[in-house]
Amino acid sequence: LCRGGLAERLCRLQNRERSAISFWRHQCLSDDKIPSDKSGVLIVKILEIFDECTIQVAICQQLEHSPLSPEDVVINAEEPILKVLFTRETAAHLKSRPQDVIHIYPPWQKLLLQNADVPVIMNTYFSQKVLLSEHSEAREKTYGLPKMLIRKNIISLAQTFRLDDLDDKLHQESSNNQVPCAPQTHDSSDSKRHPLALSAVNDSLLEMVESQGAVGWREVQVRVVIQRVYCLPAREGSRSHTQGNKPLLSNGGMFCRLCLLVQDAYGIFSEVQLQSLSSTDDVEQYCRRWEGKSCCLAGMKILQRTTRGRALGLFSLIDSLWPPVVPVKVPGQSQDSEMMTTNLPPPSFCYILTVQSGEIHVEVDEEEQISNLYQPPAVHGLKEILRMDGCNERCSFWAQVLYRRLQTKHSVPIDQREMLLFVTDSTLQNVVHGIPKVVAVSVTASCVLSMEIMEALSAGSRLVFFKDALWGNGRIICVERTVLLLQKPLLCSAAGADLSELPGPVRLDELDSAAQASSICALRGTVVGVNESTAFSWPTCNRCGNGKLEVCPQDRELLYCNQCSEVVTTPLLKMQLEVFLSCPSRPQSTVKVKVWHEVTLFVLLTMLLFLQTYEVQSVLGKEVGLLNCYVHSVTSHPNCVALEEIVLL
Fold it and tell me: Which residues touch 469 (CB under 8 Å, ≥6 apart)?
């Protein structure tokens, strides 16, 4: 909205109007009585109700005073007949039926129409239904009463513009156009029937928000398409929230909830936050079952209206789904089948919806075909992603995870630390030069990983599908709304051959002048120095890896493992040693390498020789390589590269 413009002033006026109405209703509820000031109050009794477009029209008879009981209601033929207009919000609040008595408080207005005998009452926001007795109040809560039908007038455009070729069918009022006012009962044996199946189904999220307000949607549904399914970490204040007896999911200390990104027929997006999930492993099956399907939302309430500036992560995902793949409806315009969707401006706002406790909220027709509006993730090769020029763009790709490393910031709790996954694919392994053969993917603490993914990465190198990761400033980041999967999605658009198959053994880039911190590389060189103060070795169990072995009580020459409760006859020797290398690829740099895993065959004899003799001269000049290393730091003053030997998954 332009600052100071007419639209902004109208928006402020509407907000003040809604606030005044909400405050007045809250005051009536808290006082539990009808306002005592009767001056200017219009008292009417409803005779008939029907709908005209978005307005509810009530044919009423004006009463002189408010009756105290049903017996006091006397129908006087001389009392004037009025046509009272209620907005959808007011009608939903009143839930009026014929024979109800309504008090309409100022400032209501009376409109006298030419050639019409019945005056029209407008501006009826401050209205209240009068419960005449306890019997009447009980009647409101009874479901077994006969259903009263609200007539809905269907007026054709031909009738509106007085065209001659009217279709007779348009003049007939069918019983199908009558909406039952009382709640519907269903056969409990039919599990597929939805309790709200007979309520009105809308196709516009905006219309639902404007008509139902932020409090909640009652007896109405909106039909949308599920574009994405993911998990979001819950806020601190939401951790104690439960739905029934089912708490929010906990993933390694992180509380999270299942979420849906949905889109309506007009292209408007909304994020729906559900409240319970048995485990994070269920996310993958929900993705396969729900994405691309149409669903009906009911019982929703607005949690937040967010904008592009407040939720960059959410809108980066929305932008990846824009423009729509099929023409969408445009409010107030004729729907041309050849309407271009490329010129539509991207969404600037999004409503965050949540379910109301105890209400049915999402109904997905899993047997339905995939919607034409659905946009599956576009799968790219890593080489193509690294050449993208944009910033904060979503990307999806297959990659082989070679190594993972938890960022060691001791001031940050373990469950909030970032994790680096070093990945590659066939497009990078086939590159000769110019592009790295391995890429680091940063997984932030806000990215929810399933236990299946965590266990798979702990077991060894796995092929992982990264869906909707974020690319920008030369980095690939897994943030909120990024999903990691082990199985290929049912629908995904990819060009070319299968990118998941590697051409052969994995190759790393050798250390050179372009090496950066927090990367991995292959290293070869000549030993020129040893840090004697940090050199040591220790035996470990060859079965469980226990590094705290004891002397066997029966045989002092053997070692014993308490965890395995067995004698260790062939222990694995682990050692830590810092050596300085001279590398042809970086002749001007001091290269320091820490070796502390089970060392490779290339340096095993060299390290053992030093640890047995502790003579630096015995290892100087020895050739080392190829070592797989993690680059800790790269400095120019002094010109030094600090590395650590690693073992790939």
Answer: 394, 395, 396, 397, 441, 476, 477, 478, 479, 482
